[in-house]
Design a protein that fits this description.
By secondary structure, the protein is an alpha+beta fold. It has 4 helices and 9 strands.
Amino acid sequence: MKHTRRIIVFTLLVAIGSAAFCQDIDKIIRPRKKQTPALYLKAYYFSPSVNMIEAIRSDINYGGTFGVLRYTNIGLSYRIPIYRFIYIQPEVIYGFATNWDDAFQSRDQFFPRIGYAFEHRLYSNFDFPIHIGARWCPSKLFAARAYVGPVFNFTLAKRDFRYTPGYMLSAGAGLDLLNILSVDAGYRIGMYNLTIYNETAQFYLATSIKF
């Protein structure tokens, strides 16, 4: 519990500190271009361990790209400028639970395995993150971001669409490259009111492509 609280406090301080840093820098170096609304196709890779590179290697050894997709969710992300360097970013992220081992063993190729996994899914999972962040863009080549926000979850099983009680607290940092590609790394954990559920902690990597 102490370790989890330290991570949350650290990520919140990073987000707050980044906003203050952006405000100070903005007085000296104005961004060359104002923020504009942008829609992204986004993919998350979730890992229970901070050593995500080792986790990805293990997934690749298990089943190549199919192994990595076991812990990958995809969806849409819409970044909305609020004031100068501040933005809000609602997202809709989709994933599903299935027996990945059965899918891997039942077929020999990637797409048939994915088709089998989806056809035999146990339920579908919908995440709705709402990130509030700060973005500093000193040039056209890159921009740095830090953000924090809640994640609300819904599940769909046999036409039963329901809300999962509680929420997840998410915090992360990212880079926008060439105003087209974005990469993020962060941490999220399940909460109910102010109660933290350590067993739900997840680290993540994410990539986004701008439409």
